[in-house]
Amino acid sequence: MIEHLENEVRGELEASRQGQKRAVAVTEVNGDPIEVLGRIGLGGAIRLGYSYCGVRMDRKTLLTLVCPEHSCPCRAASLAKWKQHQAIVIPTAPPPRFQPVARPLFEEVEIRVNGRSCQARPASFRCLTPCPHSVHAAMPMQKTGWDLFEAGRCIAGGVLKNPETGLSAPLLPTLEAAQTWLATQSPAGCGTEAAAYGC
After folding, report:
1. What is the domain count for the chain?
2. Domain range for residue 16?
3. Of 36, 54, 94, 142, which residue is most buried, by most CB within 10 angstroms?
């Protein structure tokens, strides 16, 4: 997205026949305006500047603020600083009155595929995750996903690790992924698959 705006600005300045010295490309992310401003500096080099909601900032900060990886601690820290800078006060609700409620020890969702019935249970995994904008190195982040059980035995779930890069992600990040996985497996092969995923 940012690269597209940068290319738009560079293209406009390079194609200008009137010797245009400045160009701006604008887009929105979640209703917030983002601008990439370009100008021709000394020696004819194109210099780029960045703006988020009218506030000038460097490229790295902008990319971190608009990062789509919600579990990234760098994104969370940047958003907290942004809200502080903007004096955005998020009202805190009064703490709820404690009312004991009986709940099961774990939640589960039944999945039925091709006559098989399995239980999907929500889980949290520590995964080595890359930055979508390459602003920082891959770092461990908490990801949610599902483990899949059949007749009380775990048949799939856990973390899938790329042996070449070391990056990892939940094998079953959504219920839809769990259904798809189950639809492609034969009952006989499930035990060995589960062992490979560490569930």
Report:
1. 2
2. 2-66
3. 36
117 and 182 in a single domain? The answer is: yes
| Tokens linked to 130 | 């890359």
- Count the alpha carbons within 13 Å of 97 in the hemisphere toward its beta carbon: 0
pTM for the predicted model, two decimal places = 0.66
Dist. CA 143–CA 75, nearest whole Å: 15
Residue with tokens 């409620």: 101
Assigned domain for 77 exists: no
Which of 35, 50, 66 is where one domain is finished?
66
Query: In degrees rounded to 5, what are phi and psi of residue 77?
Result: -65, -40
Contacts of 24 by beta carbon, 8 Å cutoff, 6+ apart: 9, 35, 36, 37, 38
Q: Residue 34 and residue 67: Cα distance in Å, rounded?
A: 13
Question: How does pLDDT run across 27-55, given as a tens digit for each residue?
Answer: 998 888 999 999 987 777 889 999 999 89
